[in-house]
Amino acid sequence: MLRLITISISHYVEKVKWALEHAGLAYKEESYIPGLHAAVTLWHTKGRHRATPVLIDGGDVIPDSTAILQHLAARYGQTWLYAHADALPLEERFDANIGPHTRRFIYRQLFDNDLSLSEIFTQNVVPEWQTRALPLMAPALKAGMIAEMAINHAEAERSRKVFETEFDFVGKLLQDGRRFLCGDALTAADLTFAALAAPVVLPAEYGARLPDLNAVKAGSTLPAIVETYRKTPAGEYVLRLYREQRQQHREIS
């Protein structure tokens, strides 16, 4: 069985899990809390790569979400991922212009609203000993995340402008009535956009437990921020993809 090394809530991980489940490929998720994950990913990649996801397929170790999807297309015949010539360029565009920026922006919002790291990272697939250790590690983990990903207000504002430009770009693509970004069929471009936009749209069908907007402090602007992005054409597209394309796989898995 395929093994997938993850931080389960990661939107890059979500992209890969969606592709695997859509393809009907069985896999075992091995999830870690941030910080501890790096020891595992660096070990498996012989020091080359510290981020998740990492796919282990027999003797092959494939880091990076786009490389993993390309591996699925080449080895397992999942040609739908790249059936259109624009799928890979769009995937790489969204990897760069949405992934880091929705992540930075939403973490800044969550930290400003005092949402605990235990609430964010405690998932059913995380080993119990890590769940118990998380509250003790939380202060150092939070400081490390802020430093490593530049989760500060100035950078979060810059990131907001970057991913909002991509939302506008996708909205314009959809103006001609196409059902998917590359036409009439689902591709890697759609999975990538929907998964990487998910942190600011918070679709219910996401493949891990997302932060609960009801848990934020009174007077928080976060629910209104999320609702604003949900109501954009791109946000509505993300929600539709999750309802129509992701929900069925979450029910089966």
Describe, in plain words, how this protein is organized in 3D.
This protein has 253 residues and is of the alpha+beta class. It folds into 2 domains: 2-79, Glutaredoxin; 87-252. It is built from 11 helices and 4 strands, in the order βαβαββααααααααα.
Label this structure with key terms.
253 residues; Glutaredoxin; 11 helices; 4 strands; globular
**Envelope shape:** globular
Number of domains: 2
Distance between the termini: 15 Å
Strand ordering within the main sheet? 2-1-3-4
Task: Write the SSE topology.
Layout: E1 2-6, H1 11-23, E2 27-31, H2 36-44, E3 54-57, E4 60-63, H3 65-76, H4 87-97, H5 99-112, H6 117-121, H7 128-149, H8 153-173, H9 188-201, H10 222-230, H11 233-252
Parallel strand pairs: 1-2
Antiparallel strand pairs: 1-3, 3-4
Short summary:
59% of the residues lie in helices and 7% in strands. The protein contains eleven helices and four strands; from the N terminus they run βαβαββααααααααα.
